[in-house]
Design a protein that fits this description.
The protein has three helices and seven strands; from the N terminus they run αβββββββαα. By secondary structure, it is of the alpha+beta class. β6 and β7 form a beta hairpin. It binds zinc ion.
Length: about 170
């Protein structure tokens, strides 16, 4: 099923998500499948469970946007364990539709996570994949990309969101 995406302003997006301790259950497999489906429907390259209103440490990523099944990545209880270099590029978020801002991130990162069966693995990514690892792991810590931009730009976005909320144009 396709879940609606939770937008900025909902508390679940700014809370620490809960550690997942039960693996390989039908519910978990279903949730992962639904998250990929929801992410593709929203045309995103990453989606964290809090973005569909579920406060659990689970994220899915596919930088090929559904073109290459080999690039589907499931991260459960992820942690960034190594960072190298830096990159600055435009970043957006499905929970902040229409907004984009340049964000500086590490260029290359290694993430340690568990898969749907609970096995631990490490994966290293560069460029867009490294950006996705950092963006999605942030989500599970209640952090949005606007926390990495200047307070001035952040306030501007907040004000615009408040206007949209008042106009009933922000779900
Ligand atoms: Zn996001």
């Amino acid at each position: 099923m396709i879940y609606p995406i939770v937008k900025y302003g909902q508390p679940v997006l700014e809370e620490d998500a809960q550690v997942i301790r039960e693996f390989d259950t039908p519910e978990l497999h279903q949730l992962i499948e639904d998250m990929f489906e929801s992410m593709y429907a929203a045309r995103g390259v990453g989606l964290a469970a809090p973005q569909i209103g579920i406060g659990k440490r689970l994220a899915v990523i596919d930088v090929s946007t559904g073109e290459d099944p080999a690039q589907k990545i499931v991260l459960i209880n992820p942690e960034i364990v190594a960072r190298e270099g830096s990159q600055t590029g435009e970043e957006g978020c499905l929970s902040l539709p229409t907004f984009r801002e340049p964000v500086t991130r590490a260029h290359k990162v290694t993430v340690r996570a568990q898969d749907a069966k609970g096995s631990e693995f490490e994966m290293t990514g560069e460029d867009l994949l490294a950006r996705a690892f950092q963006h999605e792991t942030d989500h599970l810590n209640g952090t949005l990309y606007i926390n990495h931009i200047s307070p001035l730009k952040r306030d501007l976005i907040r004000r615009k969101v408040r206007k949209l909320q008042k106009a009933g144009e922000w779900g």
